[in-house]
Amino acid sequence: MSFERDLVSPDAEGDERNIEAALRPKRLDEFIGQARVREQLSLVLQSALRRNRPPDHVLMSGGPGLGKTTLSMIIATELSVPLRITSGPALERAGDLAAILSTLSEGEVLFIDEIHRMARPAEEMLYLAMEDFRVDIVVGKGPGATAIPLEIAPFTLVGATTRAGMLPAPLRDRFGFVAHMDFYGVAELEEVLHRSSRLLGVTLPDDAATEIAGRSRGTPRIANRLLRRVRDFAEVRAEGVITRDVASAALNLYEVDAEGLDRLDRAVLGALLRKFGGGPVGLSTLAVAVGEEPETVEVVAEPFLVRQGLLARTPRGRVATAAAWTHLGLVPPPDAFGASLLIDLGDDAEQI
Ligand SMILES: Nc1ncnc2c1ncn2[C@@H]1O[C@H](COP(=O)(O)OP(=O)(O)OP(=O)(O)O)[C@@H](O)[C@H]1O
Ligand SMILES: [Mg+2]
Q1: What structural domains and CATH numbers belong to the chain?
Q2: Where is 84: in which H helix or E strand?
Q3: Is the ipTM, as predicted for this complex, more than 0.90?
């Protein structure tokens, strides 16, 4: 058994990058949600513009699909400066980074995506560049090698990472501003969906937007993706008209449920409840029960289940919460939790 993850994966899949580029907000006031980050960043940018100096280096931290790349591009646009884009994995050798740094123009924004994946020598070169706008070019090898300092134009580094914890402290400390990107609320995702539907030229009623937003796992990228699937469904089956029922039928067809769980999520939860009485059960036992690798269960399914309060990781193993039983319409056995936690699920709940 294997599961299609494309629909609710927070990572960009296939040619999605191109589609996304068209939906990216270009200015700060078009960027939806993240009110605190937006306000903080707006201050940083405005004061830099006033002083006519490049702003402090900015670190964007947050899960995939929450808008880090989008916001980085906005920074360059708002400052009216060019943007240079690279990524941690592309900077294998210090020379790769030196080539970029030495050709930056004054005030340019250098965006390093996945900055936590940069190789060590490049990282050390970056420290000096961030702090003193200088790089040391090493000439020669062995004991005769000399470092020639080279001045570079003052620039702004914008780093993005999904794993801020993996950044070495000296690097983290050199960012003057850290933008923590959070998951989006349903109302914010509705706004994202309305904006995207205008750009895609489709009519999206409010209640249909609510339906899609609720299943989007707090992530604009997923919201936009579900919107495209709903549009396809409406074109083929509903003469292009999106209603709440059409949206709901489309997403049911793609097996994305009302809380945004997909087949793998429900399989994991279902096995935990039906086969192991709600746990505790070890990760590998649970993975075998759904025919998946333990890593897939741990990395792909569990974080969202934990965030939704449906599953808990305990030292004794994985445990379902009361909400998990409710979500799958099952009645927990009397000994599943303390008796006080038992919930009445009504007559139509499936008995296990
Ligand atoms: N605040 C927002 N308002 C409107 N659209 C957004 C917002 N944030 C993200 N999006 C949309 O979601 C998509 C993904 O955003 P983006 O590529 O910036 O995410 P990311 O955090 O860089 O993801 P990754 O970690 O995978 O690089 C883009 O198409 C963008 O248009
Ligand atoms: Mg990105």
Answers
A1: 34-180 (3.40.50.300), 186-253 (1.10.8.60), 263-341 (1.10.10.10)
A2: strand 83-87
A3: yes
